[in-house]
């Protein structure tokens, strides 16, 4: 069944989404961790339709003492249409105010491979109203879909998860004329939307309104975006190498000398300084950078020894984005194949030449690169 939704936001709320793979919300009685794992991150064995993973989270304080550990075993089913989605794993803990590091370890129980990613965070102010998670369930997998894939594939259940710390009176769901009102309990709301949505053939609009006295909050449900896979693909060392393209010389000198244990914190600090909208949870510059790195790898990787983000075209793309004009000649009468990228706004032109004839284009006019 196909579901199409549009959203209206009447008030801007504070979201506790960090921007990579772990969302953290701090309430009076608990800290909620939402581990968002891109479906593409899971590896299936040859001819296997199922992959089993153990997902562990370790929490350490600023003295590097472990103060929490959580584990969950998840079973992932192969489904081609889930490629633009993420699997949600939920943990909760009780932490005091302070600075922490949360590290997630993913172990493939079938193949034995192991990966990890993490983030640093400071727990101080309470999350007033958390993210609205609209989660579909299929084969016991909790799935967060992209906005373009919402209900475009089969699903068994659908739930809304909502946390809060302000004194909420009620939460109201409005779906194409149907209204469902929920009275909150214990600082969180879980609403089963399965029956409501299955009774509507093709919903055109869903609204989530939270009432606090005379104040109304209308929130936008959280959707998966492809750039969330960045933190599971690139190590902190790779991330710092990538930041070399946009960092100042002073920033790069400092980051390039850091020990591995301090890299993640330095990356967070870099993006804090370069946040175009300080005071909000989103960092648009960071999101755009992640998108460009991923696109560079997808478009310009020639072989495993030269990732797309390390290539000349990848570097220029990460720094400047899509060119305004492209001129190329694959089979020139004289000379080598070439590609020319023109950036009108920056008044720059970059010439790439394939000297070896294997598709590895190198930048000829490096002196024009800032």
Task: Give the structure's gist in a few sentences.
The chain has two domains: 22-219, no CATH class; 228-368, no CATH class. 17% of the residues lie in helices and 37% in strands. It contains seven helices and 19 strands.
Count of DSSP strands? 19
Q: What structural category characterises the helix and strand content?
A: alpha+beta
The count of helical stretches stands at 7
Spatial order of the strands forming the largest sheet? 1-2-5-9-8-10-13
Low-confidence spans: pLDDT under 50, at least 5 residues?
A: 1-20
How does the major sheet shape up?
7 strands, antiparallel
Helix content: 10-25%
Number of domains: 2
As a percent range, the share of strand residues is 35-45%
Q: Termini distance?
A: 51 Å
User: How would you describe the shape?
Assistant: globular
Run of helices and strands = EEEEEEEEEEEEEHEEHHHHHHEEEE
Q: Mean of the pLDDT scores?
A: 85
Radius of gyration over alpha carbons? 23 Å
Question: What does this entry look like structurally?
Answer:
There is one protein chain. With 370 residues, the protein is α+β, with helices and mostly antiparallel strands. The chain folds into 2 domains: 22-219, no CATH class; 228-368, no CATH class. The chain contains 7 helices and 19 strands. It has helices at residues 194-198, 230-233, 236-243, 249-256, 263-273, 284-300, 312-320; strands spanning 22-26, 31-38, 50-61, 66-77, 85-93, 98-108, 114-123, 129-138, 141-145, 157-164, 170-175, 178-182, 188-192, 206-212, 215-219, 325-329, 338-343, 348-353, 362-363. The strands form 4 sheets. A 7-stranded antiparallel beta sheet has the order 1-2-5-9-8-10-13. Strands 4-3-6-7 form a 4-stranded antiparallel beta sheet. A 4-stranded antiparallel beta sheet has the order 12-11-14-15, with no helix packed on it. Strand 16 (325-329) and strand 17 (338-343) form a beta hairpin. It is globular and about 75 Å long. It starts with 21 loop residues before the first strand and ends in a 7-residue tail after the last strand.
